[in-house]
Amino acid sequence: MASHRRPKQPSRTRVTVLTTAAAAAVALSSQAANAAPSEKPSKDEVKAKVDKLYEEAEQATEKYNGAKEKQEKLQKEISTIQDNVARGQEELNELRDGLGSMASAQYRSGGIDPSLQLFLSADPDDYLDKASTLDQLSGQQVEALKKIQEKQRDLAQQRAEASKKLKDLSATRTELGKKKKEVQGKLSSAQKLLNTLTAAEKAALDAEQDRANRTSERQALSGSTASASGRAGAAFSAAQSKIGTPYVYGATGPSSFDCSGLTSWAYAQAGVGIPRTSEAQANYGTRISSMSDLQVGDLVFFFNDLHHVGLYAGNGQVLHAPRTGTVVRYESMDTIGGPFMWGVRV
After folding, report:
1. Whose CA is closest to 66, among 164, 167, 179?
2. Which residues are catalytic?
């Protein structure tokens, strides 16, 4: 008689695993079917993001400019102190040589005064603190000792000041490197976004930018330069001569500019030295709060942190270096992208 065996049933654990896997597969398939395809950002969306990155790059650029200016100032101060220390050391050596000559003369005439001999082998600061010692020296010797003491103290102070400034310089260089990297990072991110555009979209954006860059003096204003005179007029005329010059972060002319680089260069051509950064320029001169009181050539500042500056061109226009990818040009103050804060009459 044939034996009848019941077929082997799958284990409860295996059934559970298979069921779970199948359910997961169905869910994933459903999600994949229902998920909307990833949409490429439009030209206008890319432009908006790029413009924001350029604005952030300009903010970082003004901080970079400030650090660079501080570095240059510290380098000059350190150089001056080091020159003074070198000259002071020469003077100190001459004073010591003079005192040595006194000692030689005393020796030839019968021996060195014990107190002077002690000085020549000891610290004059400690030595002069002993009041009784002065009574044992001639007036000429006392005067020489006091000059040496004063010179030594002066040199010690200058060396301490130089040491402090060298530490400040090191910290400033570190800050400068960070700001430079931040600017470059923003510009790199903007370029990556631009690279996502098609050739046609890039051409359309370039055409828009070219139209803005070609904004002419005739389009921006007519005859407003008549109200520009003196230093402001000379600075404005200098800036006008640079219309069409490209924006480059950290640049101060004459072949490229950033915003505060243009304004500081323009006023320099008028024989007026103003600070390098927009933030510092904002407090250099007479503040003009109302746009209606502005005159051609006045400095005008935008954004709450004052990171953008230009020259007032009349009729609500500004002559400025806007940002990366643009050139020095006229533009309506309403289209800067940030609020007008105030003007400054240098």
Report:
1. 179
2. 259, 308, 320
CA distance 149 to 334: 65
Judge whether residue 228 has pLDDT over 80: no
β-partners of residue 247 are 257
Q: 323: closest CA among 141, 78, 118, 53?
A: 53
Structure tokens at 109: 């005439």
**Residue at 78: amino acid letter:** I
Amino acid at 40: K
Of the candidates 242, 234, 283, 284, which has an alpha carbon nearest to the alpha carbon of residue 259? 242
> Could you give the strand order of the β-sheet that contains 299-302, starting from the edge strand earlier in sequence?
286-288, 340-345, 299-302, 308-314, 317-320, 329-332
Task: Please list, in sequence order, all residues whose beta carbon lies within 8 angstroms of the beta carbon of residue 322, skipping any fewer than 6 positions away.
Answer: 247, 259, 329, 331, 336
CA distance 324 to 83: 41
Evaluate the omega torsion of the peptide bond into residue 7 and state whether it is cis, within 30 degrees of 0. Answer: no
Cα dihedral: 172, 173, 177, 179 (round 10):
20
- The pLDDT tens digits for 199-227 are 998 888 888 877 776 654 455 555 444 46
Distance CA 271, CA 321 (A): 21
Q: Residue 275, class by beta-carbon neighbours within 10 Å (0-12 exposed, 13-18 middle, 19+ buried)?
A: middle
How far apart, in whole angstroms, are the C-alpha atoms of residue 181 and residue 188?
10
